[in-house]
Amino acid sequence: MSLTVTIDVYGKVFDTLTREAKLMLNGFDDQMSISNVLGMSKTGNLASSVVETIMFPDTMVGEPTLRAVLYSTTLDSILDAVKSLIQKPYGCFEQTSSVTYPMVMALQLLQEMKKQFTQRGDTETVEKIEEMEKEIIANLKDGYQKLIGFETTT
């Protein structure tokens, strides 16, 4: 399948994103990720571009959906990736631990990042990090309670 997204700024084409992807029929989702850094050169021209194409087959049933996220900074991309690790613990021991453990690592990363941004005086980023820390800590408490519930005396 192929999809092209064009971004224009003040009527001028700023960037075009086109993506090729394998379409999974029978209702299975297909996900993809594209990463690149766009910037302006000293002359005011686009310094880099991302071109991806998604072709939809003629036999496709239903309407495709697309979610595109553009980050203004690499930090926003990193924080969004960390946020994707924050989940409510669920299921059996393996499921609970596979959700809980990455949150422990994410919390450690956020704590280190918070130190750096506090030293720099970036209160906006510190606030974002603190919100994420609170959510992770609440989920870790729930996950821990769930994990100790699996403990046996034998």
Strand proportion: 5-15%
One letter per element, helices H and strands E, the order comes to: EEHHH
Task: Please tell me the overall pLDDT.
Answer: 80
Q: How many domains make up the coordinates?
A: 2
The rounded Rg comes to 21 Å
What structural class results from the helix and strand content? Answer: alpha+beta
Straight-line distance between termini: 54 Å
The neighbouring-strand order within the major sheet is 1-2
Fraction of helical residues: 40-55%
**Number of strand segments:** 2
Could you say which overall geometry the principal axes of the C-alpha atoms support?
flat
Contiguous runs where pLDDT drops below 50 for at least 5 residues: none
Main sheet characteristics: 2 strands, antiparallel
Tally of separate helices: 3
Can you give a write-up of this model?
The protein is α+β, with helices and mostly antiparallel strands and 154 residues long. The chain folds into 2 domains: 1-70, no CATH class; 74-149. It is built from 3 helices and 2 strands. It has helices at residues 74-83, 93-120, 123-149, and strands at 2-9, 12-20. A two-stranded antiparallel sheet has the order 1-2. Strand 1 (2-9) and strand 2 (12-20) form a beta hairpin.
